[in-house]
Amino acid sequence: MDASFNPVVSPLIRKLESIIALSDDERQAILDLPLQVMSLRADQDIVREGDRPSRSCALLEGFACTYKSTAEGKRQITAFYIPGDIPDLQSLHLEVLDTSLGTLTPSKVGFIQHEVLQELCDRHPRIARAFWRETLIDASVFREWTVNVGRRDAYARIAHILCELMARMRAVGLARDHTVQIPITQHEFADASGLSNVHVNRVIQALRSDGLIVLKGETLQALDWERLKEAGDFDPTYLHLSPKAEAA
Amino acid sequence: MDASFNPVVSPLIRKLESIIALSDDERQAILDLPLQVMSLRADQDIVREGDRPSRSCALLEGFACTYKSTAEGKRQITAFYIPGDIPDLQSLHLEVLDTSLGTLTPSKVGFIQHEVLQELCDRHPRIARAFWRETLIDASVFREWTVNVGRRDAYARIAHILCELMARMRAVGLARDHTVQIPITQHEFADASGLSNVHVNRVIQALRSDGLIVLKGETLQALDWERLKEAGDFDPTYLHLSPKAEAA
DNA sequence: CGTTTGGTTGAAATGTGTCAAACTTTGTGG
DNA sequence: CCACAAAGTTTGACACATTTCAACCAAACG
Question: Which window residues (154-213, chain B) lie with Cβ within 7 Å of strand C?
Answer without folding.
Answer: 154-155, 194-196, 198-199
